């Protein structure tokens, strides 16, 4: 930090097990990725190449190298996994992970119908060689799960080998744990937290109000995902209570 | 593409006559324009320097050279044309096109009242020396045209020499073919498509939901405009059905 | 300007006393700051490092030097001032201004309760050595002041030594002089303008509709703040009436 402010909340340090920030890259150029690294390296724990943007991005090899050199783990968005398995290309997908020497993979079923046993089987297979993050929740606004179902899915996926589970929100933040309006389903989150250890969950929270809500509920070291690269500095100030939205929350009385 | 996914929709290749993407540059620096080219060159067919941003942009010559070297045609937004003809400066405007060796020009009347015969006369004159794109629809939310009028205007402008007609939406996507809320006027679009060849129209679609709507209606190779530079990679994934919004639409049953 | 358009409104030139644009940097990398300077140098009068982003930004020294070399004055957002004085660190804050050789400082009370006499005392002290900009209005949507109170606060702060007063809106533009929806509190603005000289006020106006509203009310040379770096070119076209939103307003009849 550049100077000293008294009585700020403690932040976990890298490598973090809680208080993670997962950033979504949905098509940065190499120079833009370097710019992001300059600002966000210390505050970023893992980077998702959003959905299947890696398929059409001209600079994939160079970008993966760039993030690797900066010590930032990268994974392909779950929609790529889904696009390939729905087409019977799971083996191709595994070869892809090999070819690009990926150390993380996301297993999700936000856009396809997948028996949960089968999903857990994918997690089991992949987690033997790679760190698996799995995502719970549909991208379909119509598909709303009851809290006990969220809990069962998360628990089963963690047991199958997921390092962390992600609570779905999409890039836009309006499905899964959020209402259409972006508002948090508070009762759902509260109930999940009675059963699943907090440090096993990454909450997708692309909107500022969502980040603020989770920071107030869980604290500076909540794990948040789908953070836009430009929001990495603003998010860190929210976690520390030095932006108005969380200013009073962290003030010692 | 970086790897193989089975059964994706075919995309037209450059130079494209359908499936065009028109990107709006509203003030990129040179380096930002280079970053955009790195990611978007293969997916971009034409670039609009939004409204009269070219008037105040410090780097105009260098930027035009940069896009030219990348083989990306550029044109000045129609509001510049309007700002000059409403001030009696049509000759100045023509000299401007010469001076900057522009190969495309936009003729529009979104902010001024212009007899349609006169508009077509401008199209006729300019199209003798330059590729003309003309825009139909007002930027004024109060001015709503009936479908038959849209059709007559588009037909007359194509006959006058326009290469393509653009269906107005502004940078924000809330006028012309959209309601104030950004929602598509579906009946209008359907009716236009019964009379005007689909490949002659570029639909301004700055918002993701609008892009999705047109891709679902017309297919991967619909021509879309007013795309933000940062959306060039995301849009390409929407066209290919590898982002959740169009994932199921393109899935072979 | 790159070419000539007749009958555009006159813009004040730097160093400006009215028609100022204050830009908010909330975490630009060095290269992004250079890109901004390339486009915005001539149109920008002062830069705010938003709230306490300076605390967590890795490149602070280099960025301050970069802006200084470009002749662009910089100040730390008022939330940093508040975060330090609420923790009894006013002396630390002064040392910070010294250490970074800041020429401007913001005094605000948007996130804390501060007696107005005390706030004016801070303004008085700081303005002996540095140019002070003070901000009026709460970041709390619940705290709505009557117009006479805005006027009294502004007047007292100007008398205490503020160079300009800023009318609060936050980065999002939905508090202070705006309703929750972002709409301007027109009666409030009108009443303020009957008592406080227009050129002493910088109106925070992060949203385009807000910029348009103030330009139409006060003219091309209204002072606006919390402008995003990417909006510097678009804003200049609004001021000149060469974007549709203000096109007709500035047209000579």
From TrEMBL, chains A, B, C:
Q: Which InterPro entries match?
A: Aldolase_TIM, ComA_synth, ComA_synth_sf
A Pfam family in this protein? ComA
- Read off the Gene3D superfamilies from this record: Aldolase class I
Give the highest taxon in the source lineage: Bacteria
As for family, the record states: Belongs to the phosphosulfolactate synthase family.
Output this protein's name: Phosphosulfolactate synthase
Origin organism is Mucilaginibacter glaciei
Give the source lineage, highest ranks first.
Bacteria, Pseudomonadati, Bacteroidota, Sphingobacteriia, Sphingobacteriales
């Amino acid at each position: 930090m550049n100077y000293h402010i008294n009585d700020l909340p403690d932040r976990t340090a890298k490598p973090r097990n809680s208080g993670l920030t997962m950033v979504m890259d949905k098509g940065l150029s190499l120079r833009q990725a370097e710019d992001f690294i300059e600002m966000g390296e210390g505050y970023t724990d893992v980077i998702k190449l959003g959905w299947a943007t890696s398929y059409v991005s001209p600079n994939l090899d160079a970008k993966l190298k760039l993030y690797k050199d900066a010590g930032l783990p990268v994974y392909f968005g779950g929609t790529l996994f889904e696009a390939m398995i729905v087409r019977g290309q799971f083996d191709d997908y595994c070869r892809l992970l090999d070819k690009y020497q990926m150390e993380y993979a996301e297993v999700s079923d936000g856009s396809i119908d997948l028996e949960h046993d089968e999903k857990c089987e994918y997690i089991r297979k992949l987690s033997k060689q790679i760190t698996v993050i799995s995502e719970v929740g549909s991208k379909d606004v119509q598909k709303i799960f009851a809290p006990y179902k969220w809990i069962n899915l998360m628990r089963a996926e963690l047991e199958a080998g997921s390092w962390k589970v992600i609570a779905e929100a999409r890039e836009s933040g309006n499905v899964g744990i959020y209402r259409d309006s972006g508002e948090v389903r508070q009762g759902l989150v509260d109930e999940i937290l009675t059963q699943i250890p907090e440090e096993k969950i990454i909450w997708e929270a692309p909107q500022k109000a969502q980040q603020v809500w989770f920071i107030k509920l869980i604290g500076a070291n909540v794990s948040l995902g789908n953070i836009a690269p430009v929001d990495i500095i603003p998010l860190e100030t929210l976690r520390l209570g030095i932006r108005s939205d969380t200013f009073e929350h962290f003030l010692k009385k």
